[in-house]
Specification:
This protein has about 140 residues and is α+β, with helices and mostly antiparallel strands. The chain has 3 helices and 10 strands.
Length: about 140
């Protein structure tokens, strides 16, 4: 029993020296935040030429992470995207699954139209998302929220 106690004490005290070594502690100042110029939020003003301003739909493009996210009328969503030769390809969007009877139709159209996007054009503070035939699917204005 004495030998077991001596072995356990030796192990216990041999590991205490590692506790005295300085450890680096991450602070909030060390985190790399995406630059604000890489994150742009747009208020969606129309879908398929229908005014949807009152619904307060929005999309947020994060250029660094290559994600698009936002609010579709009832649920929030997020999707990865890629850009090649001015063609934007969205992945299948992930969304929360609440049901809002009042906004169900607008949200259904939002998601149905979202997957058709092929080009993204930003001119000054205006956003145009178009399909492969160059038809405007979504239009929006930049917001600083």
């Amino acid at each position: 029993m004495k030998h077991l106690t001596i072995i356990l004490l030796t192990i216990l005290f041999s590991n205490t020296t590692s506790c005295n070594t300085p450890k680096s502690i991450a602070t909030n100042n060390e985190k790399t935040e995406p630059q604000s110029s890489q994150i742009t939020k747009f208020l969606i003003t129309s879908i398929n030429n229908k005014d949807v301003t009152e619904s307060k739909l929005h999309v947020i493009f994060n250029e660094e992470l290559k994600t698009i996210s936002g609010f579709a009328g009832c649920n929030t969503f997020s999707s990865k995207y890629t850009v090649k030769d001015d063609i934007i390809s969205l992945g299948y969007p992930m969304a929360t699954k609440m049901y809002c009877e009042k906004n169900a139709a607008i949200e259904q159209e939002f998601f149905k139209t979202l997957v058709l996007i092929k080009t993204k054009a930003i001119e000054k503070d205006s956003l145009l998302l178009k399909d492969s035939n160059n038809k405007i699917l979504f239009s929006g204005i930049k917001t600083n929220e």
